[in-house]
Write a structure and sequence with these properties.
heterodimer; A: mainly alpha; ABC transporter involved in vitamin B12 uptake, BtuC; two-stranded antiparallel sheet; two-stranded antiparallel ribbon; 11 helices; globular; B: alpha/beta; Rossmann fold; 7-stranded mixed beta sheet; 12 helices; elongated
Chain lengths: ~300, ~375
C-alpha cells in the first residue's frame, strides 16, 4: 500500500512534466497540423537556461528559494519563448503552404540543430546544480517503507495545476483564445475576418515554448542534472502523451501525460522497469485501436 | 562533352579520395556526439597528444601520422557507416570503437578490409568471434564482473544486493557476469532489474529497491544513469552503495551525483596515472589542461602501440602489423601490452576503486 502511494506521487510528478510538454505538441498540431519535433529540444534549451540562471543567482549570493525560483522561471519563460518564436519564423513559416512533409523534415533538422548547438556551446558533459529545493515530508510508514513527498514534487504538481487553469481560461475566455481556435478551424476564413494568422501562429509557438520552459525549470529543480540530450526522450514521451490524449486537445494532452506517468511508475514498481516502455506503448496502441483519435480527441470529419 | 565532365569528375574523386601520400592515416572512432560524448572527448584528447608527440619525434617510418576522427554516437548502424568511411579513407590503424555494441558490428568491416584495431570495449564477444584484426587493450567484462561480483559477495555478506543493467551489450554483459560471480560465492542477487538508458526518472526503480530493502546495487551501464539513480535514491531517503564497471571513471559522475558519489565503487584497470613510467605524459596532459582520466591514457597507449608495432615491423601493411602486435610486447603509458591468441590483453588486472572527495582511488581492504 505504501509503495502504491509512493508510486502515485512519483507518477503524478512525472506525468505533470510530460503533460506540460505535451501541450506544446498538441497546440501546434491543432493550429497548423504539423508535429513540431523540435519541441523536446526547446524544453532542453530551457533547462539549460534554468541551470545558468540558478548558477548566476548563486554567485550573486541570492539564496532565497522562492525568489530565485521566480526569477529563473521568468527568465527561462522569456528566453525560451523567443526560441519558440525564432524556430517557427525560420524553420516553419517559409514552408507554410508547401507539402505536409516539408515542415516535418525541417522540424527534425531544427531538433538536430538545437541539440548540436547546445552540445558545442555548452559541452557534452552533464551539467549539475546543487539541490535547490531540498527536503520533504514523510507521509506514513508501513512495514518499514516510508512514503516520502519531496517539496520539489509538491512544487511541480502545484505549478502544473495553476498553469493548466490559466491556460484553459486563456483559450476558452479571451480574445486571443478565440483567434487561436478560429485559426484551428479555418485559416483562410480567419484571415478574411481581419485576424493576423501569422501572428496568432507565432504566439501559439511562444506559448507552447513557455510551457516547455516551465517543464524545463521544474525538471532542473527535481532531477538537478541536465545534458543536451534530455529533449529526445522527453519529447518522444510527451508526443506519445499528446497522441494518447487525442492530439489537438488541451485537456487530452494533460490527461495523456498523467496516464503515461502513472503507467510508467506503477509498471516499474510492480512488474519490471525493463518493460515499462513496452507497457506504455502497448496501451497507446490499444487505445488507438478503439479510439483512433485518442482519449479526448475529436474525430476529423472529412467534408466531401 | 559529357565524357570530359565524367573524366574530370573521376579525376576529382581520385584527388579527394587520396590524402597526402606521405602520411599514415590512423583513426579513432567513438561517441563524439550524443549521450556519451564525454568519453569520445577523452579518446580524442588522448590520441591527439599522442600523435603530436610521435610526430614531433619524427613520426613513424619517417612519415607523419595524421588523425581521422569517426563519430558513431554509440549507434551500431552509424558505427558501420563510420567503419566504411574509414576503410575508404585507407586508414592503416583504428583505435575504437568505444561502446561494445558499436565495436562488434564495425569490427567485421575492418576485418574484411584488413585494418588492425585496438579497442577498449569490454564485452567478451568483441574478441570471441575469431577475428584476427582485433586487439583489446582493456580487460573483459567476464574478468571485470568476476572481480566485482566476488568483492560484493565477500564485503557485503548478509546484505541485500540488487543487480541492475541498462540493456546495452556492455551493461547487460557486465551485470550478468557480476550476478554469476556473486552466485558462485553463495550470494544470490535479491533483485535483478533493467532500466532504459537516457531517461531522467528512475523513481520506480528506487521505490522498488527501497521496498525490497536493498542496500547495495551492482550496476552494468554508464555513469549518467548512476548519477540520476543516486540522486533520486537520496531524495527518497534510501542510502545506496553502487558497484559499477569501468565507465564510472568519468569525473562527470562527481558533479552529477553530488556527495552521493562517495558511495560509488567500480572496477577498472590499474590507474595509468599511478604508473611511474607514465609520469612525464601525465604532466604533459595536465599542462595542456587535460586531466588524463578514464580513456585518455588508453587512447594515448593505442597510438603508441601502433607506432611501436610499425617501427618494429618496418611496415604498415596489415599482415606485418598483425603478426608483430600478436607476438610482440609493447611499453605504453598503461603498462606493458601483450596479447593472447584471441587478441585479449594478457595482463588487464582489474582493481576495485572507490570515489572519495572528487577523486577515485583503490578501495581500502
Amino acid at each position: 500500500m505504501a509503495l502504491a502511494l509512493q508510486q502515485l506521487i512519483n507518477g503524478l510528478t512525472l506525468g505533470a512534466v510530460y503533460g506540460l510538454i505535451a501541450i506544446g505538441y498538441t497546440m501546434v498540431y491543432g493550429i497548423i497540423g504539423m508535429i513540431n519535433f523540435a519541441h523536446g529540444d526547446i524544453y532542453m534549451v530551457s533547462a539549460f537556461i534554468a541551470i545558468s540562471v540558478f548558477t548566476l543567482l548563486a554567485t550573486f549570493g541570492i539564496s532565497s528559494v522562492p525568489l530565485s525560483l521566480l526569477v529563473v522561471l521568468l527568465v527561462a519563460v522569456l528566453f525560451t519563448s523567443v526560441y519558440g518564436w525564432t524556430v517557427e519564423r525560420t524553420a516553419y513559416r517559409p514552408l507554410r503552404g508547401s507539402t505536409r512533409l516539408a515542415p516535418l523534415i525541417s522540424a527534425i533538422g531544427m531538433s538536430i540543430f538545437l541539440q548540436n548547438m547546445v552540445q558545442l556551446t555548452q559541452g557534452a558533459r552533464v551539467k549539475p546544480i546543487a539541490p535547490v529545493l531540498v527536503g520533504g515530508v514523510d507521509l506514513l510508514t508501513v512495514d518499514g517503507f516510508t512514503v516520502h513527498l519531496a517539496y520539489s514534487q509538491v512544487l511541480i504538481i502545484v505549478v502544473t495545476v495553476t498553469l493548466m487553469a490559466a491556460f484553459t481560461w486563456l483559450i476558452t475566455r479571451t480574445s486571443f483564445g478565440r483567434q487561436q481556435r478560429s485559426c484551428e478551424q479555418d485559416r483562410t476564413m480567419t484571415a478574411l475576418l481581419g485576424i493576423n494568422v501569422d501572428r496568432t501562429i507565432s504566439l501559439t509557438f511562444m506559448l507552447g515554448a513557455a510551457l516547455a520552459a516551465v517543464a524545463g525549470v521544474m525538471v532542473t529543480v527535481y532531477y538537478g542534472v541536465v545534458d543536451f540530450f534530455i529533449g529526445f526522450v522527453a519529447g518522444i514521451k510527451a508526443f506519445t502523451a499528446a497522441v494518447l490524449g487525442g492530439i489537438g486537445s488541451l485537456p487530452g494532452a494533460m490527461l495523456g501525460g498523467l496516464l503515461i506517468g502513472l503507467i510508467e511508475a506503477f509498471w516499474a514498481a510492480y512488474l519490471s522497469a525493463e518493460y515499462k516502455d513496452v507497457a506504455t506503448f502497448s496501451i497507446l496502441i490499444l487505445v488507438l485501436m478503439f479510439r483512433p483519435s485518442g482519449l479526448l480527441g475529436r474525430p476529423e470529419v472529412e467534408k466531401v | 562533352m559529357n565524357k570530359h565532365i565524367l573524366a574530370a569528375s573521376i579525376g576529382l574523386f581520385a584527388l579527394a579520395g587520396s590524402p597526402a601520400w606521405a602520411d599514415h592515416l590512423v583513426a579513432i572512432a567513438g561517441p563524439m556526439t550524443g549521450q556519451y560524448a564525454s568519453a569520445g572527448d577523452q579518446i580524442r584528447k588522448g590520441a591527439e597528444l599522442a600523435i603530436a608527440e610521435i610526430n614531433a619525434k619524427g613520426g613513424v617510418l619517417g612519415q607523419k601520422l595524421k588523425l581521422e576522427v569517426g563519430d558513431d554516437a554509440c549507434d551500431p548502424k552509424q558505427a558501420v557507416s563510420v567503419a566504411n568511411t574509414m576503410v575508404n579513407k585507407k586508414i592503416v590503424f583504428m583505435h575504437g570503437h568505444w561502446c561494445s555494441s558499436s565495436t562488434i558490428p564495425a569490427s567485421d568491416v575492418y576485418n574484411e578490409a584488413q585494418i588492425p584495431m585496438a579497442t577498449v570495449s569490454t564485452n567478451p564477444q568483441v574478441t570471441e568471434r575469431g577475428l584476427k584484426n582485433i586487439f583489446r587493450i582493456m580487460g573483459r567484462d567476464d574478468q571485470q564482473g568476476l572481480v566485482a561480483g566476488t568483492y560484493l559477495a565477500e564485503t557485503f555478506k548478509g546484505k541485500k544486493i540488487a543487480v541492475v543493467d541498462d540493456k546495452s551489450a556492455y551493461g547487460k554483459g557486465l551485470a550478468d557476469e557480476i550476478a554469476k560471480a556473486m552466485e558462485a560465492k553463495g550470494a544470490k542477487p535479491a533483485l535483478r532489474e533493467a532500466i532504459t538508458a537516457g531517461e531522467k526518472d528512475y523513481s520506480g526503480l528506487v521505490s522498488k529497491l527501497k521496498s525490497a530493502g536493498v542496500e547495495v546495487m551492482a550496476f552494468g551501464g554508464y555513469h549518467t544513469e548512476v548519477a540520476l539513480i543516486l540522486r533520486q535514491a537520496q531524495q527518497a531517503g534510501l542510502k545506496l552503495t553502487v558497484m559499477g564497471g569501468d565507465t564510472m571513471t568519468n569525473s562527470e559522475l562527481v558533479s552529477a551525483a553530488g556527495p552521493a558519489v562517495d558511495n560509488v565503487m567500480f572496477t577498472f584497470a590499474p590507474d595509468p596515472r599511478k604508473n611511474p613510467a607514465a609520469a612525464a605524459v601525465v604532466k604533459k596532459f595536465r599542462d595542456a589542461k587535460v586531466e588524463p582520466e578514464g580513456y585518455v591514457m588508453y587512447a594515448y597507449a593505442a597510438m603508441q602501440l601502433f607506432a611501436q608495432a610499425a617501427d618494429k615491423a618496418k611496415s604498415t601493411k596489415y599482415a606485418d602489423l598483425e603478426k608483430t602486435i600478436r607476438n610482440g610486447s609493447f611499453d605504453t603509458v598503461i603498462g606493458k601490452l601483450s596479447f593472447d591468441a584471441k587478441g585479449d590483453n594478457k595482463l588487464p588486472g582489474f582493481m576495485v576503486y572507490q570515489w572519495k572527495g572528487g577523486q577515485y582511488d583503490y578501495v581500502k581492504k
